[in-house]
Amino acid sequence: MEPSQIIQDLGSGDLKTRLAATQACAKSPDVAKTAIIPLCRLTADPNEEVAQWASAALEEMGAPASEEQDALADLFTAEEATAYWAVTLVGRLKPKDLAIPKQLAQLVENEKTPEEVQNRAIWALGQIGLNSPEVQTALENAAKSPSPRTARLATKALANL
């Protein structure tokens, strides 16, 4: 199957077609890299198998292209699974400007952010390693969290700034 057809099939309303497309992406990281945003969205697919294959594709693909940064940031407040993957991919990307780290810091500070997404945002801030007052404050506050995992991740991220 051609990569362009696989990408088109990711948006299909037909479950079997969507499932086959996510499986194809999981087996070909190069194809997955061209379909990052649809794959992120499919991690929240109502069909668990499609969601799992979309996650598998994203796990295997490595860092996204820098051009994907803004589109990924637009997904930071999407459904939890989608937001988790968008944050993870931005952390792998390690952007060089402060706009994305500031958005991640806002996720960390927002009490409505699901804990797994918040923890992933903390991890991403540590990976990116760019400091600003917003990032510093968010990580210092998170380091005081009653959640041992959140506090540990924030302490580690602070050490990377």
From TrEMBL:
Domain of life: Bacteria
Pfam families listed in its UniProt record: HEAT_2 (PF13646)
SUPFAM superfamilies cross-referenced by the UniProt entry: ARM repeat
Name listed for the protein in its UniProt record: HEAT repeat domain-containing protein
